[in-house]
Write a structure and sequence with these properties.
The complex is a heterodimer of chains A (about 180) and B (about 400). Chain A has about 180 residues and is an alpha+beta fold. Chain A has four helices and five strands. Helices cover about 30% and strands about 20% of the residues of chain A. In chain B, helix 4 runs antiparallel to helix 15, helix 5 packs antiparallel against helix 6 and helix 7 runs antiparallel to helix 15. Chain B is globular and about 65 Å long. Chain B starts with a helix and ends in a 7-residue tail after the last helix. The chains are: A alpha+beta (about 180), B mainly alpha (about 400).
Chain lengths: ~180, ~400
């Protein structure tokens, strides 16, 4: 059979291109009106706007003279130590949610929230740390650094000015409350 | 008969919009077909490094704003949903993306990608919405499912059609309907960027009130990069002391976002603005730890992949896809790969590792080749401005 090359609009598609054009125009109109109405809300996904980096948050203020970061020290039942950064806890790298979960897990202001966060953190860290033995204890350490913003690097990552253990919990601590 | 002026204005506006959407586009048929393959691979790479399984067991007090679309389906949210639920959905999504890459049952695969990917992102958006995922997860498959523009070239579907009826689509065809989804996406980008600039300048936005914010931003991001042990921006201290440079970066961001809509003028302006956008995002990712990686695939829709293919494989320019392999064999292969990858995606066999090359391709390194290529595209577009427009 001799091949026939198609070049006319719509010949190749089962769709009617003009009908598709009409649908797309209607959707774009809904999007324009929708974005005007929803503002910065994200509950209306997928009709959401890009309002990122619009406010005057800490990232736009002059750098602080010192900065701190949490480090998780994870001990297994065999005594092995694993260092875990909060930003690696979830499969979303460098995400604010993972930091929030770690902060809540060591914040005693609300015990219910703290314990639920600890259970979640224990599970997430177990998935992250590939080991044959079980995780026994998770310690949160606050590492502080002096900031020299006009230097490169601005902090000495290997030499924190202070290392303070914030809190710790063990598998037994959260098992009782299950 | 009384003529109402408002109606005639609306009619004229509508006619102008139609005229814009129905302009021909060089190599439209082939470029969207090749884009489909790239899109599928990019989405698979994204899934290889991100999983929605973090939602499983996540306490509900982490929910910021529950998305209306899924609010009444998942009342208990992540607490009661096992990881298997997310793994199963992702396995189906992977299988759909493999079929999409091969171009087998393209429309069905596109709709599946839209629905499954949309569901996963709608759930994730409640706690950690990545707004820059929207083009990849929603807009591209949504527009493509309306017209199925990307299934007619470089696909098993086109080979089967040729086998059955002897008809095929010329990849160099410039018909507007193949490029309709791309033009719709350009409008979406224009709206979103314009809105982003509006939020920066008004409605509580800080960008017109603080002239030194970009200087501080460069420094703070360098501190953050140091904490995360990422490569540092050695120019950050210098830039923060040079008002001319940091104010230029400040103004440039606002001007770029406000006037992105000028990309609708013609192809040359579009190429210029999209290449600038890629440079803008690459600098943000490499120097400012501002990750907008998923947006990358949206811009790829405006690259003429067919011309690139013709440049590297000129001898095959005249061929319209003479199949060296039988469509039936390819169909079997597509179904086999889709099944295997779908089933083993969350196994310990390291399938996902293949797609990110054991961590070599991550949200940051992917921008390294983009920056020089976007710069080259930008310069080439500037040179082309001297030449008359192609259609």
């Amino acid at each position: 059979m001799e091949d026939q090359t198609i070049t006319e609009p719509g010949d190749a598609s089962k769709s009617n291109p003009l009908q598709a054009l009409r649908l797309i125009k209607i959707f774009l109109l809904i999007l324009v009106l929708g974005i005007c109405v929803v503002g910065k809300r994200k509950s209306t996904w997928p009709i959401v706007s890009w309002a990122l980096y619009s406010g005057y948050s800490a990232r736009f203020r002059p750098p602080e003279p010192s900065v701190s970061a949490i480090e998780l020290r994870v001990y297994t039942t065999t005594g092995d130590l694993h260092l875990v950064k909060p930003e690696h806890v979830l499969t979303l790298p460098r995400d604010s949610l993972s930091h929030k979960i770690v902060e809540q897990a060591f914040d005693n202001a609300n015990v219910r929230v703290r314990d639920a966060s600890r259970r979640y953190l224990m599970r997430a860290v177990s998935n992250l740390v590939h080991t044959n033995s079980e995780i026994q204890t998770i310690q949160a350490w606050k590492l502080s650094y002096q900031v020299e913003p006009l230097e490169v690097p601005p902090i000495q990552l290997q030499a924190p000015t202070s290392e303070v253990m914030v809190d710790s919990f063990s598998r037994e601590d959260i098992a009782e409350k299950n | 008969m009384i003529k109402i002026p408002a109606f005639s204005i609306i009619r004229n506006v509508n006619a102008s919009i139609n005229a814009w959407f129905t302009q021909p586009e060089v190599n439209a048929a082939g470029r969207v077909g090749l884009f489909r393959i790239l899109y599928s691979l990019f989405y698979l790479w994204h899934l290889s490094v991100h999983s929605a399984d973090f939602l499983s067991g996540l306490p509900s007090f982490y929910v910021e704003e529950r998305v209306y679309l899924v609010r009444y389906i998942f009342r208990d949210f992540g607490m009661s949903i096992p990881p298997l639920f997310f793994h199963t959905l992702e396995s189906f999504l992977v299988a759909a993306l493999v079929l999409l890459a091969f171009g087998y049952k393209t429309r069905m695969a596109t709709v599946s990608v839209l629905l499954i990917g949309g569901l996963l992102e709608a759930l994730s958006a409640a706690v950690d919405g990545k707004r820059t995922l929207l083009p990849m997860v929603f807009y591209i498959p949504f527009f493509m499912s309306i017209i199925n523009a990307w299934g007619h070239t470089y696909s098993i579907d086109s080979m089967l059609r040729r086998h059955k009826s002897g008809t095929q689509v010329d990849p160099h065809a410039s018909n507007w309907d193949y490029f309709l989804p791309a033009r719709a996406l350009l409008i979406v980008f224009s709206i979103l960027f314009f809105g982003s600039a509006v939020f920066k300048m008004g409605f509580g936005g800080a960008w017109l009130r603080h002239s030194d914010m970009m200087a501080n931003f460069f420094l703070n991001r360098n501190i953050e990069a140091a904490i995360y042990n990422l490569p540092l921006n050695r120019l950050a201290p210098f830039i923060s002391q040079m008002p001319l440079i940091y104010l230029a970066a400040h103004v440039n961001t606002l001007v770029f976002e406000t006037f992105f809509f000028l990309s609708v003028i013609n192809r040359k302006v579009r190429d210029l603005i999209v290449s600038m956008a890629l440079i803008f995002h690459a600098i943000n990712a490499l120097w400012l730890v501002v990750t907008t990686t998923p947006i990358l695939i949206g811009y790829c829709l405006f690259i003429d992949w067919q011309a690139i293919k013709d440049f590297f494989f000129p001898s095959r320019r005249q061929e319209l896809g003479d199949p060296t392999v039988s469509p039936k064999v390819l169909t079997f292969l597509a179904l086999f790969v889709a099944t295997i990858l779908g089933l083993l995606w969350h196994s310990d066999l390291g399938i996902r590792t293949l797609f990110h090359l054991n961590g070599l391709i991550n949200w940051r390194t992917i921008w390294y080749p983009v920056l020089p290529l976007a710069l080259a595209w930008f310069v080439a577009t500037l040179i082309r401005f001297r030449q008359p427009a192609r259609t």
